[in-house]
Amino acid sequence: MEDQSMESPVGGPPPIDPKVMRGIGIRISLCMGITLSFFESLTGSLIGGHFSPASWLISFLTSTVISIILGLIIPMGKISRAIQAKHGPGIKSRLLDSLVSDLIYTPIITTIMVTGVYLIAMKVSGGHAELNYLMMLLTSFIACFVVGYIIIFIVQPIFMNIFIKNNKNNKPENK
Description:
This protein has five helices and no strands. The chain is mainly α. Helix 3 (about 75-85) runs antiparallel to helix 4. It is elongated, with a radius of gyration of 19 Å. The model is unreliable at about 1-10 (pLDDT under 50).
């Protein structure tokens, strides 16, 4: 991950205006939320054993809304900068940043999604569905945690680079 602090090293890229960086952070958060929701809802639907395009789409849309809300509430940019400030740039910071992000998002989203599926299944069956809620939650959490970690680790720096490079305010002015 690139350093997003306002102080740029000598000879490094010019600093990014905090308002511009906030906009970049929001775009990264939106893209990460959509990407994570896509893969985690697909994982959850496949683990459940009853995959259908309609159920996956509902799961994806619900998860996306939850992810976007979390992304607007949780200051992941600040958290990432704090991790990088403590551990320096490099793979160690990226691994830790991915872990922290996954630990924040996955439990919340997975719990809401599994609980929703469980409640719907129980309602449709009149309370007679033979489902073990804890087992559903644990299985889904483990799978989604692994998938989420890998997706965050791979995709977050890609989105960051795309939005920072495409930002016109980050380019030195031609004089």
